[in-house]
């Protein structure tokens, strides 16, 4: 069963072809980073227009590379939410139009479910059940995963997501957009232990996160320095260390609370090398296992949507031809959703 996956939730246009038996056939990705860099952040209207411009050519490219025709596609999966409403509508309308013309099913996929299942695309994939840390620019979640669609939300950010905090701290440091990767690169030049940042919400029980205080602490710390290149590198290192250790502390609690010994980490921020090291060290001490998707599948991509959609179509999940897009969509509502 060939499934076409379409991802248009934010500023990256992703397309992939996945086969239920053969696995991932091909995937293509177009990033709008260069366009939005001029504005210092994502402009939703421009993002939507660029998805319109690039989506059909990417689908054609993916089919051509795979030596397949549109008539070979047996199902279409698209990101239905959460995300930017205009961007989501581009993917949803394209998916439903193609599905109608080819007389095949189309299924809306939760964007974070796609990230959660991205490690399943690897040869060494995790077995159920596991704890998942989903950490990106828009979300920071801890989820207990018993199977596909069997999700229990354990904790989430009460304000900024970790990736959003990275980008905002980077902006304070004078770094370009998107700032998260640039902050991590700058942190390599930092002097350890010069600044001690708080580990927010780790001194109280529970698995929720809060990263807004780290932004304020970053600004106050910078204002107390001359803001030399070394000052900025030291602040970047302290910020990154605090974020990584906060995530590790919460993940350790989640493993103990659930009694599980398997951690999956996914989402754009999971590509951060330092965060990977800190989380890996933590699970080794806990005699647990850890799984990451390869870096190209950490950021938004069509492959994860194709895989997630394939599993739902194989389970006979269906939806109507109504174009569906949900800019806000809590992941724990998936169990309650029978018809999208």
From TrEMBL:
A GO CC annotation given for this chain: cytoplasm
Transmembrane residue ranges: none
EC number in record: 2.3.1.234
Residues annotated to bind Fe cation: 111, 115, 300
Cofactor(s) needed: Fe(2+)
Cofactor binding comment, as recorded: Binds 1 Fe(2+) ion per subunit.
GO biological process: tRNA threonylcarbamoyladenosine modification
Reactions that this protein is recorded to catalyse: L-threonylcarbamoyladenylate + adenosine(37) in tRNA = N(6)-L-threonylcarbamoyladenosine(37) in tRNA + AMP + H(+)
NCBIfam families linked to this entry: gcp_kae1, T6A_TsaD_YgjD
Protein's UniProt name: tRNA N6-adenosine threonylcarbamoyltransferase
Organism encoding this protein: Methyloprofundus sedimenti
């Amino acid at each position: 069963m060939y499934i076409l996956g379409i991802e248009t939730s934010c500023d990256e246009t992703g397309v992939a072809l996945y086969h239920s038996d053969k696995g991932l056939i091909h995937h293509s990705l177009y990033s709008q980073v260069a366009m939005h860099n001029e504005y210092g952040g994502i402009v939703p209207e421009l993002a939507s227009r660029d998805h319109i411009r690039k989506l059909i050519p990417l689908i054609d490219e993916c089919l051509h590379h795979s030596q397949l025709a549109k008539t070979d596609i047996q199902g279409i999966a698209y990101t239905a939410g959460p995300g930017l409403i205009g961007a989501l509508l581009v993917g949803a309308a394209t998916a439903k139009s193609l599905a109608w013309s080819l007389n095949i099913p189309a299924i809306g996929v939760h964007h974070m479910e796609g990230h959660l299942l991205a490690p399943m695309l690897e040869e060494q994939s995790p077995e159920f059940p596991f704890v998942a840390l989903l950490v990106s620019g828009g979300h920071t979640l801890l989820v207990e995963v018993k199977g596909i669609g069997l999700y229990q939300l354990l904790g989430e950010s009460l304000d900024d997501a970790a990736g959003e905090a990275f980008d905002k701290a980077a902006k304070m440091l004078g770094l370009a957009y998107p700032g998260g990767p640039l902050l991590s690169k700058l942190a390599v030049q930092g002097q350890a232990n010069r600044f001690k940042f708080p580990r927010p919400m780790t001194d109280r029980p529970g698995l929720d996160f809060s990263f807004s205080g780290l932004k304020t602490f970053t600004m106050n710390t910078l204002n107390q320095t001359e803001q030399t290149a070394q000052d900025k590198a030291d602040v970047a290192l302290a910020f990154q260390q605090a974020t990584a250790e906060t995530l590790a502390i919460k993940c350790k609690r989640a493993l103990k609370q659930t009694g599980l010994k398997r951690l999956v980490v996914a989402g754009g921020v999971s590509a951060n090398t330092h965060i990977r090291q800190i989380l890996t060290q933590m699970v080794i001490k806990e005699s647990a296992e850890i799984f990451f998707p390869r870096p190209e599948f950490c950021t938004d991509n069509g492959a994860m949507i194709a895989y997630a959609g394939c599993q739902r179509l194989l389970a006979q999940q269906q939806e109507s031809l109504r174009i569906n897009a949900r800019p806000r969509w809590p992941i724990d509502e998936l169990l309650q959703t029978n018809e999208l």
